[in-house]
What we know:
Blueprint: E1 2-6, E2 16-25, E3 28-36, E4 42-53, E5 59-69, H1 73-90
Antiparallel strand pairs: 1-2, 2-3, 3-4, 4-5
Amino acid sequence: xxxxxxxxxxxxxxxxxxxxxxxxxxxxxxxxxxxxxxxxxxxxxxxxxxxxxxxxxxxxxxxxxxxxxxxxxxxxxxxxxxxxxxxxxxxxxxxxxxx
Length: 99
């Protein structure tokens, strides 16, 4: 997996992008974006972009996006940390940095 921290400019969404983290993982790329509403409330978008190779040799990208709003940050973070800790305990090899 490759990680990039950077600021992305407004190019695909109308909300202001504050900060982004790009995670490249094989055929998938994950975009974690902090954005602000016009009222300056922060929210997070998580986008999965997956490269698809078609039989005719052409390629396209499949994108899935979710929005995470400020009122859910704590519970989402808690749930994600709990599930990742469970996986680390039961399948520590999944977190091998050499993959």
